[in-house]
Write a structure and sequence with these properties.
mainly alpha
Amino acid sequence: MRKFRCSWLFVAGLLAMVGLFSCNQETPIEKTKAAAESGNAATQAAGQAAVDAIKTPMEKARQTESTLEQSADQTAAKIKESTQ
């Protein structure tokens, strides 16, 4: 009887120790959140690089559009002068 009680206490103690050590480990959700937070900075940097890659050609296109509008206005003005 004493041996049974001793082994029962040993098993209970072992389960308690396993429970305590497992509580200190991260759950998969916490690991995912931590990975997302660390990856978030990388994602933002990649997103900013993509925006910059698109922004530069768009700015050049706007400058070209402005130049073409000025040329069209000058051409229209010359045609108006020659027809008058």
